[in-house]
Design brief:
Largest sheet: 6 strands, mixed
Number of strands: 12
Number of domains: 2
Order of helices and strands: HEHEHEHEHEEEEEEEEH
Radius of gyration: 24 Å
C-alpha cells in the first residue's frame, strides 16, 4: 500500500466483490513512496473494521547501492521499533516484513565492496531484532546485475586530436550504469575472442547517437581491435537497458538472448526499428 488513497481503494473493492486481499503497508523513507508511521498506526488501530483486508505487515525500501552497515542498522532499528510499538499499543503482530536492502552491485573497477563482510554484518543485525516476523529480502540489482551482459559491435575507430575513439552500434540509449556520469568511471568489459590478449592502447568508447554525451567509457585499455569486433559489457542484468533512453533519435532496439544451461542461446526478442513508434499515425497504420 503506497498511499491512503490506495488503501481506501483496496478496501472499497474488497467489500464490493467480497474478496479477501492480503496487504503490506509501505513505510515511507521520506520520499514520495509509502505512508507515514502515524498513518500505519491509524490503519492498524482500525483493522477489525476491514472485513476483507488481511494486513500482513510492513514493507520498506529506501534506496540502492548501500554499503554502510550503520545506515542499514538505523533502518532495521526503525522497522523493529515500529513493529514493537504496533504490538504493545494495538496488540498487532506483523506476520511479514519485506525489506529492500539496497545492496550494491560492483559496476566499476574502482568499486571496493566486501560482500562477505556486508552480508555477514547485515545478517547479525536481523538476528538482533526484537520482533520476529517472517522476513523477505528484496535484493534488487545486487543479485540481478551479474545476470546480464550487453554486446555491441565496433563500427568505426579513429584518432581525433590525439584521442583514440571507438564508435559502437549501441550507446547510452541501450546501456546505463547506475552511478555513471559522462563515463567518469570504468565499467567491466572485454573484447570477445580477445579476452586473454595483452592490451596495447587506450580508447574512448562512444555510442551511435548524435550527441556528444553518448560516451560509454573513457581511456579503456584494449588489445588490438578491428572494426567488426564485439565488445561485451558486464553486469547489465539490472536496469541497464530499461533505464536507457531507448527511443531517443529513433535508434534500433537490440535483440535479447537467454543463455540456456547447455551453453546455447535462445533469442527471446529480435532487434527492431523504432522510428515507426514516433510517427503520429503509427497506431492507425498498424491497425
Amino acid at each position: 500500500v503506497e498511499s491512503l488513497t490506495q488503501f481506501n481503494l483496496f478496501r472499497e473493492l474488497s467489500e464490493k466483490y467480497k474478496k479477501k486481499i492480503s496487504l503490506l503497508l509501505r513505510l515511507t523513507n521520506g520520499s514520495q513512496f509509502g505512508i507515514n508511521s502515524d498513518e500505519i498506526e491509524e490503519i492498524i488501530s482500525k483493522r477489525n473494521e476491514f472485513e476483507y483486508l488481511d494486513i500482513l505487515g510492513i514493507q520498506f525500501f529506501s534506496g540502492t547501492q548501500k554499503t554502510s552497515l550503520k545506515k542499514l542498522k538505523r533502518e532495521i532499528d526503525k522497522l523493529d521499533n515500529l513493529l514493537i510499538l504496533l504490538k504493545e499499543k494495538y496488540d498487532y503482530t506483523a506476520e511479514e516484513l519485506e525489506y529492500g536492502t539496497g545492496f550494491p552491485a560492483a559496476y566499476f573497477k574502482e568499486d571496493n565492496i566486501n560482500e562477505d563482510e556486508l552480508i555477514g554484518g547485515f545478517a547479525q543485525l536481523l538476528n538482533e531484532m526484537t520482533s520476529k516476523p517472517k522476513i523477505t529480502l528484496e535484493l534488487g540489482r545486487s543479485i540481478a546485475a551479474a545476470c546480464g551482459k550487453y554486446y555491441t559491435h565496433i563500427v568505426d575507430k579513429k584518432c581525433n586530436k590525439g584521442e583514440n575513439y571507438l564508435l559502437v552500434d549501441g550507446g547510452m540509449n541501450h546501456i546505463v550504469y547506475y552511478g555513471q556520469h559522462m563515463a567518469m568511471k570504468q565499467p567491466y568489459l572485454s573484447v570477445c575472442g580477445k579476452e586473454t590478449e595483452p592490451c596495447t592502447e587506450s580508447w574512448n568508447i562512444c555510442g551511435s547517437l548524435c550527441s556528444m554525451n553518448d560516451i560509454i567509457a573513457k581511456q579503456i585499455s584494449l588489445p588490438d581491435i578491428e572494426i567488426g569486433d564485439v565488445i561485451c559489457f558486464e553486469n547489465t542484468g539490472a536496469y541497464c537497458m530499461t533505464e536507457g533512453i531507448s527511443l531517443f533519435l529513433s535508434r534500433d532496439i537490440p535483440s535479447v538472448y537467454i543463455k540456456k544451461e547447455d551453453g546455447t542461446y535462445l533469442c527471446v526478442r529480435d532487434s527492431f526499428e523504432t522510428f515507426n513508434l514516433n510517427k503520429p499515425n503509427y497506431r492507425k497504420e498498424t491497425n
